[in-house]
Specification:
mainly alpha
Length: 103
């Protein structure tokens, strides 16, 4: 298993890919998300969103477009990135996705 440090650049790229795909495929321009990525990096952005008491506006917008696969939550539940998150963060992501029928 790779170290967390080795996974961070990959996770950062995956987060940027979420933005790019959301814009291109779902016609959702997540400018606040992009700003958060630039300011905090991928992992801190994901943690902030997962620790929030409610889903983000971006999650809601992607849900309306039928693209929950492009959410931070969908990325956080991937086994590839599990070691980057706490149990409660992964559970929050899973619960949000299940609530809207994605998992």
């Amino acid at each position: 298993m790779e170290s967390t440090d080795a996974l961070l650049p990959e996770f950062d790229r995956a987060m940027r890919d979420l933005y790019d795909k959301s814009r291109r495929e779902a016609r959702y321009n997540a400018t606040l998300f992009l700003s958060m990525l630039a300011q905090h990096g991928g992992l801190a952005t994901a943690q902030k969103l997962l620790r929030a008491p409610a889903v983000s506006d971006g999650f809601a917008a992607l849900r309306e477009r039928g693209r929950l696969d492009l959410t931070v939550e969908a990325l956080a539940v991937q086994p590839r990135f599990a070691e980057l998150f706490t149990g409660p963060e992964i559970e929050t992501a899973r619960r949000r996705l299940e609530q809207f029928g994605h998992l």
